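Run log, item B.
One chain of 71 residues. Sequence copied directly from the ordering sheet:
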Amino acid sequence: MNSVVIAKFGGSVIGVDGISIPVIIQRINSLSNNAKVVAVFSAPLTVVEGKRRSLTDVALELGRRAEEGKV
């Protein structure tokens, strides 16, 4: 039976605006030499108003603002 590796890559690993995606692809390719790989990703980071923030948080905040008629 083949091994299965589940690799999760979170926002800070992905980097601001996905800058580290090439490194992640190399890691997945390396892992796939010895096992089947299931890759899981969470929202990458971006910079909003000079601060690093998760795109999930940005989307939620924009949704709240829209609900309040502020967008």
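Observations after the first pass:
- Residues 4-67 form one domain.
- The chain has a mean pLDDT of 90.
Flagged for discussion on Thursday.
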